[in-house]
Amino acid sequence: MDNGFFKNIEQKTGVRMKDVLELANSLQNANFKDQQTVRDVIKRVAALANKPVPQQLEDQIVQSIVKDGSKLDIQTITDMLNKKDKG
């Protein structure tokens, strides 16, 4: 992908693509059956998105991910964070 595409995303989201790519890279070998690893990822995504995650929501996300740790990706966490905004 060209740099213009990434710059456009950065301008719209306020999130540096370098940070997103570093997070995505760290997810490749992470153990998503480990609660602390999942909590760390949630906190990193929340910081990138500039969205606070209440403890109750964090617990729900952790429980959901640890139950099926093979299906975690950034989109899953982002979707869960966005649900907080809608309800």
From TrEMBL:
Pfam families (alphabetical): SpoVIF (PF14069)
Origin superkingdom: Bacteria
InterPro entries given in the database record: SpoVIF
Protein name: Sporulation protein
Source organism: Bacillus aerolatus
